[in-house]
Amino acid sequence: MAAVDGVSLDVARGECIALLGPSGCGKTTTLRLVAGFIAPDSGRILIGGRAVERDPPHRRQIGMVFQNYALFPHLTAAGNVAFGLEMRNVSRAERDSRVAEALAMVGLDRLADRYPARMSGGQQQRVALARALVIRPELLLLDEPLSNLDAGLRVEMREEIARLRTQAGITTLFVTHDQEEALALADRVAVMDRGRIVECASPAELTEHPRHLFTARFLGARSVLEGRAEAGMFRAAGLPPIPLPAGARPTHLVLRAARLRLTGPDSAPDAPLVAAARIEAATRLDDAVHYELAVGAHRLRVRRPTAEPALSPGAHAMLVAPTDAMSWIEDFETAAGEAA
């Protein structure tokens, strides 16, 4: 089985694209192909309109930040940042100027003479970013850039990368398995599975209207109902028929936990889907309560603000799904399998 199979992706100048997917899906292999660490068996890799698939990495005009930062321990922060310029025979005067500029950009101008062993993880990450940016690359590649940082520092560095990327106006391709990271940083997200790109769209499109079942589930959808389209209605076992948009013939309905509502068991709200539910579990996380519901034979998730009256396990309620809580998906693989 090919690690990467038929991947086709255009990245516009100044755009940031995330390769997102589970371990083994081919995202890191794709990045290494672009970087030049692996030669493709077939196909073309163009950077700035120039074919580079047979060029070594140092001739591709790319900057790369590795998962483990890959800093030289015997060099200072300034020495690490200067390394790429030295390899490109940049003059000493220009090199010193660009190194100072790059370190200032990442807020490390006062740590130019410090060695990596005396730096925090966040500081090492900034040095790695400065080293990648100082060569003024046509393309910046980031390989799981935040995975080695703790949760608080990860958010801080995510914001820092977004700022630097915008400030430099640099084209960026990065790999992550973290949905939140991809959705926060990227202009578009390419969701990968088994060596292929399943879907590539903006973060808003992927979260609001995923086209594929794999995308919805990978991005955290837990309330997915399988059913069939029949006479303009979606029918799922144990639920009332749900009106469909004109022409839609979905195989699955995805319900967004944060937009579902819970009302009293005797209420009769007006919504496309209203069904009796029993609270199975309730867990408070931050400013929301996460409910697990039994709705017929289904187990669904609902997330409601803590400001609302809490419901205890065993309580009965009505599950209310307004239109903006629903996404319709035709799972093409499922449909093809049934047709066969």
TrEMBL record:
One protein family per Pfam: ABC_tran
Q: Which SUPFAM superfamilies match?
A: P-loop containing nucleoside triphosphate hydrolases
User: ABC transporter domain: from which residue to which, for each copy?
Assistant: 1-219
Q: What is this protein called?
A: ABC transporter ATP-binding protein
Q: Which InterPro entries match?
A: AAA+_ATPase (IPR003593), ABC_SmlMolc_Importer (IPR050093), ABC_transporter-like_ATP-bd (IPR003439), ABC_transporter-like_CS (IPR017871), P-loop_NTPase (IPR027417)
Listed GO MF terms: ATP binding; ATP hydrolysis activity
Q: What keywords appear on the UniProt entry?
A: ATP-binding, Nucleotide-binding, Transport
Gene Ontology terms: biological process: quaternary ammonium group transport
